[in-house]
Write the structure tokens for this entry.
Amino acid sequence: MSSLLLRLHLLVVLTFLLFYALKAALLLTGRLDTLRTLRARTRVADSVLGLLILTTGGTLLWQHPAPTPTWLWLKLALVLGLLPLAIAAMRRQHKTGVVLTLLGFGYVYGLAETGSVTLQPATQAPARTGAPAPGRAEAEATPDAAAPVDTLALSATGQALPDSVPAAAGPAETPVLAAGQALYTQHCAVCHGPDGRLGLNGAYDLTKSNLTAAGRIYQVTNGSLSKKMPAFKDKLSEEQIRQVAEYSLTLR
């Protein structure tokens, strides 16, 4: 549910920004008749989009594991402030106000992409291509991190796979993995994605992580050194954390 809600939120935000950018362009180029016609035709759509942005964003904030990072609170405050200002500026055809609110929305989008008030991710992100950028490969030190293992190559040569990398383990094969999958979907998929590759808010690509089971338990318990991933030690029990870690290994 969280993953679907996140996709809906992003779709609504991008649609609103495209509409607003188009209207700003018409205003700045002096095409006022076209602007008035477009505003009249999209007045209801604008209201619906604004409401959806607030409801989906508020729900995602409520579902976000504690503690909520500073950048997320800033994003919410900016959206609440910019929406009425943008509507007022566009209604009065105030060019400076429209430009400033458009820049403000751009900053909000940057906050969501980088998870940082300075728009600087904790580590260098992969180069942008035509396809969405995947999550980053694991780079942070923990008490237990093994060298990355090419499981396909090992399987092809007939070698036994290490204990820390289960071979094609189905999520529902054991009660531990089934429970871990449910917990992962509830708490982790919103940033890591159902397959571990989403990479939202700077999340690592779990399919490339070099963390063993013990390292993942440590990471889930204590959170990320970059403070983008919250610690779950006060939200999940030790057994639940172990279940999530075991399930995450099947995503490799």
